[in-house]
Every structure is written in C-alpha cells, then in structure tokens.
Design a protein that fits this description.
Blueprint: E1 2-3, E2 6-13, E3 16-24, H1 39-61, H2 67-74, E4 77-79, E5 82-84, H3 92-102, H4 113-124, H5 130-142, E6 146-148, E7 155-157, H6 159-176, H7 180-183, H8 192-215
Length: 216
C-alpha cells in the first residue's frame, strides 16, 4: 500500500502475517519537517498506521451484521431530530457509495466530497453531482458509517462503517452478482416434474461419460 513517498508492507509465511512495516521516506508526506527531533512523532504515526491497517483487515474478515443492524440500515430513521433515508442493499447508488468508501480507508487525512465523488460516479455508471454526494455524506454520517474530522470538510470511515461497507460489497460481489441468473426464474416450456426428470437424466448421462473416460 502506497501513500505519496511512503509505503506499508506486510510479510506473510504459511498464510500468517509475520509483521506489518511502515516506511516513511519523506516526513513531508505527513506535514512534518525532517529532523531527529521529529522521530518520536513519526514512530507514533507509523504505529497508528499499522493499527489502522490491522483494524481494516480484521473488520473485512468479520463483517457479518446482526438482523437489528440490517433493519436500521434498510429503513429510514430519525437521528437527533433529523430524518435519515435508508441505505438499502442492492440499490445501485448505495452499493457504489459503499464500495467507494472501502478504497479510502488508508488515507491519513480522510477523504473529501470531491475525492470520493468520481469513484462513486464510475461505479454507479451515471452522472453524480456534488449535491448528491453531499446528501449521501450526510446520511452516512447520521447513520454512523463515517465521521467528520473536526474543523475540516474531510471524513473518515468508522469501524462500523467499514463493517457495513465490506458486508454489502462482499455479499453483492461474491454471492448475488455471480449467481444472479440462478435467482431469476426462467421461462421453461416443460412442466416442473418433467424438467426435474430431464435434469436427472442429464446428470446420469454425464456420469456415464465421466466413468467411460476414467476407464479409458
């Protein structure tokens, strides 16, 4: 993972992570001047980056949501007297928005409206205005998925927000989209009982072919 002139590397052996290493080649990447007096601050910064990466990896591997959490996301809610619209699974705009967020988890200063908007537009495949981005950032913030950095126009994803984004993205990209054809009923001229019998016959013929090939 790269950020300007700095890098984060992980070393693995036998499917286990041995260590996570941050290399800061230019302190100015993080708005710090060069000098030994700033070394403790750079060390703390590197540890924060390590922890953030491990947090993202942990959340991405354990991102199952409870039924209550799903219900709150799927329905409009009222937060601090403000109505917040739903973030419905499968909605193309919502899916593009959450997928885009996962690409900004590594930025030390968070992301802005103009940083995120082109990525959402590309994933959605439709024009996406700054006003729409502002609206979506508001509902993500009120739903607790992102946090606004004080005195800035930048945002960072919360741990809960990362969990929701990974859950939506994985469920859609790995399960629903590859198997979408199987979920949609097809028009079949044959009655269901006859179709089931023909499927059994087809499997038996395929089995005979496989056995013949094995014997040969």
């Amino acid at each position: 993972m790269d950020y300007k002139h700095s890098h984060v590397k992980q070393y693995f052996k036998e499917h286990r992570a041995l260590r996570t290493e941050v290399t800061i080649n230019n302190p100015r990447d993080f708005w710090i001047r060069k000098g030994l007096s700033n070394l403790p601050h750079l060390r703390d910064l590197g540890q924060q980056i390590n922890r953030k990466l491990l947090e993202v990896e942990h959340v991405s591997h354990a991102c199952v949501l409870t039924q209550g959490a799903l219900d709150r996301l799927q329905q409009p809610t009222v937060v601090a007297g403000q109505r917040v619209s739903a973030l419905r699974f499968g909605d193309p705009r919502v899916m593009a928005l959450l997928q885009a967020i996962t690409g900004f988890t590594h930025l030390p200063r968070g992301f802005r409206n103009r940083d995120l908007r082109p990525h959402v537009e590309a994933l959605w495949g439709r024009p996406y205005s700054a006003a729409q981005m502002t609206y979506d950032l508001r509902r993500l913030r009120l739903k607790g998925l992102i946090h606004r950095i004080p005195k800035t126009h930048r945002y960072t994803a919360t741990s809960y927000g990362l969990k929701v984004a990974f859950f939506y993205a994985k469920l859609y990209l790995r399960i629903f989209r590859p198997n979408w054809a199987a979920l949609i009923p097809t028009d079949d001229r044959f009655p269901r009982a006859l179709r089931a019998a023909l499927d059994v016959l087809d499997r038996e013929i395929q089995k005979l072919h496989e056995e013949a090939a094995l014997a040969a």
